[in-house]
Write a structure and sequence with these properties.
There is one protein chain. By secondary structure, the chain is of the alpha/beta class. Helix content is about 35%, strand content about 15%. Strands 9-8-10-11 form a four-stranded mixed sheet. A three-stranded parallel sheet has the order 3-6-7. The chain has a two-stranded antiparallel sheet with strand order 1-2. α6 runs antiparallel to α7, α7 runs parallel beside α14 and α13 packs across α14.
Length: about 350
């Protein structure tokens, strides 16, 4: 999977209503993930009081990653997030990044930035307004702006940066890249990314506790809904006038199976290593399943409902489709797609609720 492919689809997923007007750039196919249900999730962590709140924790730490190893000598005071969702993992540990990526392009003239206003992040940011160092779709981060922020740590985990970009960032501040075992950008399980960032912040034990809490929440959802185990389900979006299902290894797919449904691994084979595939009319059978989770904002939901091959699926006719808004309204799709320590509890609750309807 090429980084440009990821960026193009991510722009669509996380700006679905762009097609409507320039004013609504933020409506994309979905930040859908990877993202919660029954049971009790991890207790929310206290918010940092300022953007420069130190990480605390145990230091020094050495973090091995895809580009080598990085020593974080002391608790960082000014953290810049270069990964699309790394800011949320950093926030989960009580640290407010001074710079972040606009994963969902902010509508022109809208303030504050939509990426700081999700239901699962708004309270964590409070009145703090981080600098935007990259917008989704940009060729790379704004190195000059990052330098002016005087970071003492740069986190680039959920990111497609290459060795050259890493080397350039490392000249500004110690930089932690994606996990060492991650072969393709964005392919690591959410648990691995969370623990990776936790270690860089000297919060390894706290990270493990938060990850276990989310896993407990998934386990509780499955236990409370044994009926899910007998059903096959997929998460899909509407992309380039076609049905685009997510693989079982994508964060959205992992959430669907995480609450108990069976996935369609045939989609994985067709995707050939990517996190999604676009179905030709001849392969619409791949989403002929018991339950379909549609991650799309209103305009794309409407277009999908008018697509005859989709409308004729048994699950659609039987009302077994959950329509989850992406960046609009409750933004359940965004919570699923982001798949972070902060968004996952919210996503699991909403996903399970939607699965019980119809």
């Amino acid at each position: 999977m090429f980084a440009t492919d990821i960026r193009d689809f991510r722009m669509f997923l996380q700006g679905m209503t762009v097609a409507k007007t320039a004013r609504r750039l933020v409506a994309a196919l979905s930040a859908a993930i990877l993202l919660a249900g029954c049971g009790s999730g991890p207790e929310p962590q206290p918010r940092a009081e300022s953007a420069a709140t130190p990480a605390g924790g145990a230091f020094p730490v050495t973090v091995e990653h895809a580009f080598g190893s990085t020593v974080v000598a002391a608790a960082p005071q000014r953290v810049v997030s270069v990964g699309y969702t790394d800011d949320q993992a950093i926030l989960a540990f009580g640290v407010k990044p001074v710079g972040m990526v606009d994963q969902y392009p902010n509508p022109p003239g809208q303030s504050p930035d939509v990426n700081t206003q999700w239901p699962w992040t708004k309270d964590r940011w409070g009145e703090t307004r981080p600098e935007v160092i990259m917008t989704n779709g940009d060729a790379g981060p704004n190195y000059e702006k990052i330098a002016t922020l005087r970071p003492d740590l740069i986190i680039a985990v959920y990111s497609e940066i290459d060795q050259a970009a890493y080397d350039r960032l490392s000249k500004i501040a110690p930089t932690v890249g994606r996990t060492k075992t991650e072969k393709e950008p964005f392919s690591a399980p959410w648990q691995d990314n969370a623990l990776h960032i936790a270690k860089a912040l000297g919060k390894a034990d706290e990270g493990a506790t938060l990850v276990n809490g989310i896993q407990d929440k998934l386990d509780a959802a499955r236990a409370a809904h044994p009926e899910f185990a007998g059903q096959t389900a997929v998460a899909v979006s509407w992309y380039k006038n076609s049905v685009a299902p997510f693989t079982t290894t994508d964060v959205r797919g992992r959430l669907v199976t995480g609450i108990g449904f069976k996935g369609r691994t045939e989609i994985d084979e067709l995707a050939g290593g990517s996190f999604y595939t676009v179905l030709s009319p001849e392969r619409i059978d791949l989403i002929d399943v018991d339950r379909i989770f549609v991650i799309a904002d209103q305009a794309d939901q409407t277009a999908l409902k008018k697509f005859e091959l989709f409308a004729n699926l048994p699950a659609v006719k039987n009302g077994k489709v959950s329509y989850l808004l992406d960046s609009e309204g409750p933004a359940i799709g965004a919570a699923m797609s982001q798949g972070t320590l902060l968004s996952l509890p919210y996503a699991i609750d909403e996903l399970v609720k939607s699965a019980g309807q119809g």
